[in-house]
From TrEMBL:
CDD domains: GDP_MD_SDR_e (cd05260). One of its GO terms (molecular function) is GDP-mannose 4,6-dehydratase activity. SUPFAM superfamilies: NAD(P)-binding Rossmann-fold domains. Its cofactor is NADP(+). Its EC number is 4.2.1.47. Gene3D superfamilies: NAD(P)-binding Rossmann-like Domain (3.40.50.720), UDP-galactose 4-epimerase, domain 1 (3.90.25.10). Keywords: Lyase, NADP. This is GDP-mannose 4,6-dehydratase. InterPro entries: GDP_Man_deHydtase (IPR006368), NAD(P)-bd_dom (IPR016040), NAD(P)-bd_dom_sf (IPR036291). It comes from Mucilaginibacter gossypiicola. The lineage of its organism: Bacteria, Pseudomonadati, Bacteroidota, Sphingobacteriia, Sphingobacteriales. Pfam families: GDP_Man_Dehyd. Catalyzes the conversion of GDP-D-mannose to GDP-4-dehydro-6-deoxy-D-mannose. It catalyses: GDP-alpha-D-mannose = GDP-4-dehydro-alpha-D-rhamnose + H2O.
């Protein structure tokens, strides 16, 4: 029998990779997408199937995590074997600007799904995966962070996700629902949202190398993150729902890297060596050498600068995960290391901006985007 999965957040980075994975495993996939004034399905357009065709295995439904009636109706109609709750206002900095909305979508949204399972009497049929996060660890208590490390959330996003984490555990214990938290550390890819730091860096690096942008403005260069590739991480989500017993897992690489090092690695991909002058809010990164014949930028040019607007009211300084449990119980190991991740992202962005440069040279304007 073909399994049926329902994915919230299907239009996001992880939603796209997970959809691809589940379709490749023969699943029928349903996704919840928000109504938007523009098309917002770029990441899954290559998987689109005309709903009028026979044997359609990918179906999108309009919906929102803030609307329980809509969630109940979709779940009743779809009767999923597995729900992957990836939908969220996922930007930590933006959550300080929209704390109430974040609590509603990221916290209560999870409750709405769990209640829908209960209301529809699907406790024994429908498994649910909750997209929990390393942001729960927040202010460092101990490293590396594992399933037993205490939480100390440091943003409205993390506090909302903390509610979602515990309500998932509670519904598992109270009602016997197969409900699991994947505590995923940062994972990136060429599909990563443009305002997260890694993608912001790879896009800007490609543009600077191409002469399309002057400088990259960043916030805290000293934050340390345990970065993996989203393709590896969606494999873990799938595995988490295939086990005999439901439980919670840390998914991480076990290696941490500073933001400034990610900057160096990205520029190195286009043959540009960046060195940083000084420390703190005035810090600047200048081109120490330009080794690439393709991308010639002036030596000594400042390519990175700090803009304090990117600092957060409370920061998470250090994340480094301990993936022992997932390696042992799920047999999960990532295929990508950080170097491969940076290469993958840089290749995609260089390719993209090469085309944009051609368009610009032919007189077409390039879009401005907010970061
Ligand atoms: P994205 O920001 O790329 O995608 C978020 C998705 O959620 C989008 O499809 C978005 O829709 C949707 N969404 C936002 N608000 C709502 C809402 N109110 N109702 C329904 N859908 C909504 O995130 P990622 O793919 O990177 O992350 C997936 C999940 O994993 C998120 O929950 C995130 O918090 C969590 N997470 C991510 C990590 C990472 O490093 N990527 C690490 C740990 C956890 P739209 O396209 O319309 O905006
Ligand atoms: P994070 O990711 O907050 O860890 O949340 P993000 O890439 O936004 O920030 C990582 C670190 O980089 C620092 N930083 C900047 N960040 C952004 N976005 N823009 C900048 O200009 C900049 N300069 C420095 C940040 O201060 C931070 O320390 C991500 C999201 O995907 C969450 O949804 C997820 O739960 C966690 O990862 C795990």
């Amino acid at each position: 029998m073909k399994k049926i999965a329902l994915i919230t957040g299907i239009t996001g980075q992880d939603g796209a990779y997970l959809t691809e994975l589940l379709l490749s495993k023969g699943y029928e996939v349903h996704g919840i997408k928000r109504r938007s004034s523009l098309f917002n399905t770029d990441r899954i357009d290559h998987l689109y199937q005309d709903p009028h065709d026979n044997d359609v295995r990918l179906t999108l439904h309009y919906g929102d995590l803030s609307d329980s009636t809509n969630l109940i109706r979709i779940i009743q109609q779809v009767q999923p074997d597995e729900i992957y709750n990836l939908g969220a206002m996922s930007h930590v900095k933006v959550s300080f600007d929209t704390p109430e909305y974040t609590a509603n979508a990221d916290g209560i949204g999870t409750l709405r799904l769990l209640e829908a399972i209960r209301i529809l009497g699907l406790e024994k049929k429908t498994k649910i995966y909750q997209a929990s996060t390393s942001e729960l660890y927040g202010l460092v208590q101990a490293v590396p962070q594992s399933e037993t490390t205490p939480f100390y959330p440091r943003s409205p996003y993390a506090v909302a996700k903390m509610y979602a984490y515990w309500i998932t555990v509670n519904y598992r214990e109270a009602y016997g629902i197969y409900a699991c938290n994947g505590i995923l550390f940062n994972h990136e890819s060429p599909l990563r949202g443009e305002t997260f730091v890694t993608r912001k860096i790879t896009r800007a690096t490609a543009k600077i190398a191409m002469g399309l942008q002057d400088k990259l403005y960043l916030g805290n260069l000293d934050a340390q993150r345990d970065w993996g590739h989203a393709k590896d991480y969606v494999e873990a989500m799938y595995l988490i729902l295939q086990q005999e017993k439901p439980t919670d897992y840390v998914i991480a690489t076990g290696i941490t890297t500073r933001v400034r090092e990610f900057v160096r690695m990205a520029f190195a991909e286009v043959g540009i060596r960046v060195e940083f002058k000084g420390e703190g809010v005035d810090e600047k990164g200048y081109v120490a050498a330009c080794e690439s014949a393709d991308f010639q930028i002036e030596i000594g040019k400042e390519v990175v600068a700090i803009d304090p607007k990117y600092f957060r009211p409370t920061e998470v300084d250090l994340l480094i995960g301990d993936p022992t449990k997932s390696k042992t119980l799920l047999g999960w190991t990532p295929k990508y290391d950080l170097k491969m991740l940076v290469e993958d992202m840089m290749n995609a962005d260089v390719d993209h901006f090469r085309k944009e440069k051609l368009l610009k040279a032919s007189g077409y304007a390039i879009k401005n985007q907010y970061e």
